[in-house]
Design goal:
Elements: H1 5-8, H2 19-42, H3 48-70, H4 78-103, H5 108-115, H6 118-129, H7 137-154, H8 156-159, H9 166-186, H10 196-219, H11 229-257, H12 259-263, H13 265-280, H14 287-304, H15 306-312
Length: 313
C-alpha cells in the first residue's frame, strides 16, 4: 500500500491550478490525444507488448539525450531508483500494456471513455492516501460531470459495444485504476529534488527494463515481420511526442498541482483528439462535441472550485 502523505512529502500542492499549470495540462492533453491515433496505426502490424516496448525504449533514449545536452543531474540514490521502478510499473508497464491490448478488441472511442475514469479513481486513491488531497463533494461532482462529458463527446455509438469484449473493457478500466495509483505514488518525487526531465527519463528506462523479458518471452519478436515505414513513423511520434515530451509536462504539473489535478488531463484528451481531427483531417464538428466540451468544462470548474465558491458567496 502507498504510505500516507506525511511519509511521502513535506510540502503540499496548490488546490487550484494557475495559468501555467492549465497551459501545461492542455499541451499534455494534445500530446496524449495523438497517442490513440499512433497506436491505432501501430497495432495493424505489431503486437501489443512490442508497441509498448519500442515506445518506452525510444522515449528513454530521447530523454537521456536531453538530460545529457541540458546537463541535468540524473537520479543518484537507490531510494530514487526504487521509486522510479514502482512509478514505471504503475504508470507505464501496466496501463500501456492493458490499453494497447484492449484497443485490439474494442474501438478507440470506447477505450477513451474508460480511460476517462482515471480522475475518478485518482480522487478516491489520492483522497484516501494523501492528506492534502482529501475527497470533497465538489471533486466527486466535477469528476462525474467530466466523465459524462467525455461519453457525450465520443458519442452514443461508442457505447453500443459495452456488452461485448468485457475483458478488454476491464483491461482499459484497470489501466485507469493503475494511473490513479501512479499519480499518487508520484507525489514523492517532489522531495527528491529531481528535475522533471530526469524523473521522466528514469521512469521510462525502468519501465523498458521491466517489460523487455516479458515482451521477448511472450511475443517472440524475432518471428514477426519488420513493420513498414508508416508504422515506424507512428512509433517515433508516439515515443518522442506522446511519451518523452508528455512525461516532462506530466511531472511538472504533478509536482505543482497534485495527483487529482494532473489526472484531469484524461477529460481534455477527447477534446484535443477531436480538435486535431478537425484541423488536420477535415473532420466535422457535431453538437455532441460542443455539449460534451461544456460538461467537461463545468466538471473542471467544479474540481478547481474557485468559480463555484464565488457563486456560493
Amino acid at each position: 500500500m502507498v504510505p500516507q502523505a506525511e511519509n511521502i512529502m513535506n510540502s503540499t500542492i496548490r488546490q487550484s491550478m494557475n495559468v501555467k499549470d492549465w497551459t501545461m495540462l492542455i499541451a499534455l492533453s494534445i500530446l496524449w490525444g495523438g497517442s490513440f491515433f499512433f497506436v491505432g496505426i501501430a497495432v495493424k502490424e505489431l503486437t501489443p507488448l512490442m508497441i509498448v516496448l519500442v515506445r518506452l525504449s525510444l522515449a528513454a533514449l530521447t530523454l537521456w539525450v536531453i538530460v545529457g545536452v541540458l546537463k541535468v543531474a540524473p537520479p543518484a540514490t537507490l531510494k530514487a531508483w526504487w521509486a522510479l521502478l514502482v512509478m514505471g510499473i504503475l504508470n507505464n508497464v501496466i496501463p500501456f500494456s492493458l490499453i494497447v491490448w484492449g484497443q485490439t478488441h474494442i474501438e478507440s472511442g470506447l477505450a477513451s471513455i474508460f480511460n476517462a475514469m482515471t480522475p475518478l479513481f485518482t480522487v478516491v486513491v489520492a483522497g484516501t492516501l494523501l492528506a492534502d488531497e482529501r475527497i470533497s463533494r465538489s471533486k466527486v461532482v466535477g469528476v462525474l460531470l467530466g466523465l459524462c462529458g467525455a461519453a457525450v463527446m465520443v458519442g452514443v455509438d461508442a457505447l453500443r459495444g459495452m456488452g461485448a469484449d468485457v475483458l478488454a473493457q476491464l483491461a482499459v478500466m484497470g489501466a485507469a485504476l493503475s494511473y490513479g495509483f501512479s499519480t499518487t505514488w508520484g507525489r514523492r518525487f517532489k522531495t527528491f529534488g529531481l528535475n522533471p526531465i530526469a524523473i521522466a527519463a528514469g521512469q521510462v528506462t525502468m519501465s523498458a527494463m521491466v517489460l523487455t523479458p516479458f515482451a521477448f518471452f511472450i511475443e517472440q519478436p524475432w518471428l514477426q515481420a519488420m513493420p513498414g515505414m508508416q508504422v515506424w513513423m507512428a512509433l517515433i511520434a508516439l515515443a518522442v511526442l506522446s511519451t518523452a515530451l508528455a512525461y516532462i509536462l506530466f511531472f511538472k504539473v504533478l509536482a505543482s498541482a497534485g495527483a487529482t489535478n494532473v489526472s484531469l488531463v484524461t477529460f481534455l484528451v477527447p477534446i484535443s483528439a477531436i480538435f486535431l481531427g478537425f484541423v488536420f483531417l477535415g473532420e466535422r464538428l457535431q453538437w455532441s462535441h460542443f455539449s460534451g466540451t461544456a460538461l467537461i468544462a463545468l466538471g473542471l470548474s467544479a474540481i478547481d472550485g474557485r468559480l463555484w465558491r464565488r457563486f456560493a458567496a
